[in-house]
Design brief:
- The protein is built from 14 helices and no strands.
- α1 runs antiparallel to α2, α3 crosses α5 and α12 packs across α13.
- About 80% of the residues lie in helices and about 0% in strands.
- The two termini are about 30 Å apart.
Length: about 325
């Protein structure tokens, strides 16, 4: 089956999932329920595309299909920001009540964190990216420990309010923030489109890409920043979903056997939309909101991550 046919099938399934989620069981509440459902669907589409896009390009520059931008500690940085706000200012502070301020603070903190990390650790050595990833994992662990430490001392009422921020949810997405996120992502996508051909070349490796005229080190830096902006925006909009990018990116590699990033990114994005919209439909109408989509994704993603690790170890031996 040709990749174009596969993409059409994925697109049809994604549209069916969107229509099913939007129109199923409205029961006369169309004017009230339908607009709210469309805001949720839009948030799922934006989040899914951002995570899929950032994961595919990130794995291209790392030459590793197990790593994701979350390894750099961005999810942990989001949790640190929210925990510090609730710990020092409280749930009734302007940093929580003002949705624009909270959204902007989360994005700014994650992007600045990534920029500082890249600025001081990225060098034009033989394997600079692996040092960066190792330090990112260590910092992510330290940030996670800081979050746990603060949560132990926080007021129980504030802690319960904080938990709603630390798990991905599409139920309380604000339309105003969604528009801002769409604007940020569109600018990122426009830049990403201009470097699509270079991404195909970079998948050949550092030496081959440099021999073909690509300024490899500069492109790696630009793509790391692009990936950080995408992940930061998606995380600030709905919350962290740790293993989601790992799942959809690897499924796209297996389903669409190609080196072209335009096809891989589109396929991974469509799979993301199917997984998020279809999964949220199951959570609301089958599981009756007894669980959350992020819990299911992280559970499946954790198992899939272990499977990939075992697969990589067998192929290396």
């Amino acid at each position: 089956m040709r990749n174009s046919t596969k993409l059409i099938i994925l697109a049809v399934i994604a549209i069916v999932c969107i229509l099913l989620y939007g129109f199923y069981d409205l029961k006369g509440g169309f004017d009230y329920a339908f607009p709210k459902r469309m805001i949720r669907v839009s948030a799922m589409v934006v989040t899914g595309i951002a995570i899929a896009y950032s994961t595919v390009v990130f794995q291209t520059i790392t030459q590793n299909r197990i790593l994701t931008p979350s390894v750099m500690g961005l999810d942990s940085m989001y949790e640190v920001v929210q925990t510090l706000i609730y710990f020092f200012a409280g749930s009734m502070s302007i940093w929580v009540l003002n949705k624009y301020l909270n959204f902007g603070a989360a994005i700014a903190a994650m992007v600045i964190f990534a920029l500082i990390l890249y600025r001081f650790l990225f060098k034009s050595d033989k394997h600079p990216i692996y040092l960066l990833l190792l330090i990112g994992m260590i910092i992510g662990t330290l940030l996670g420990s800081l979050v746990t430490f603060l949560q132990v001392m926080i007021d129980p009422v504030e802690y319960l309010a904080l938990q709603n921020r630390l798990f991905a949810t599409f139920s309380n997405v604000k339309a105003e923030l969604l528009y801002i996120a769409i604007g940020i992502l569109l600018m990122a996508f426009i830049y990403g489109y201009t470097i699509m051909g270079k991404l195909d070349v970079m998948s050949l490796g550092r030496e081959n890409a440099m021999n073909l005229g690509v300024n490899y080190d500069k492109m790696v830096m630009n793509i790391l920043i692009l990936s950080s902006v995408l992940i930061a925006t998606a995380t600030a909009l709905v919350g962290p979903i740790t293993f989601f990018g790992l799942i959809v990116a690897n499924l796209a590699y297996q389903f669409l056997v190609t080196y072209k990033h335009s096809i891989l990114i589109l396929g991974a994005s469509l799979m993301s939309v199917i997984a998020l919209v279809g999964g949220q439909f199951l959570v609301e109408h089958i599981f009756e909101l007894r669980t959350t989509l992020s819990v299911i994704i992280n559970f499946i993603g954790g198992i899939y991550f272990i499977f990939l690790l075992l697969k990589e170890s067998r192929s290396a031996s």
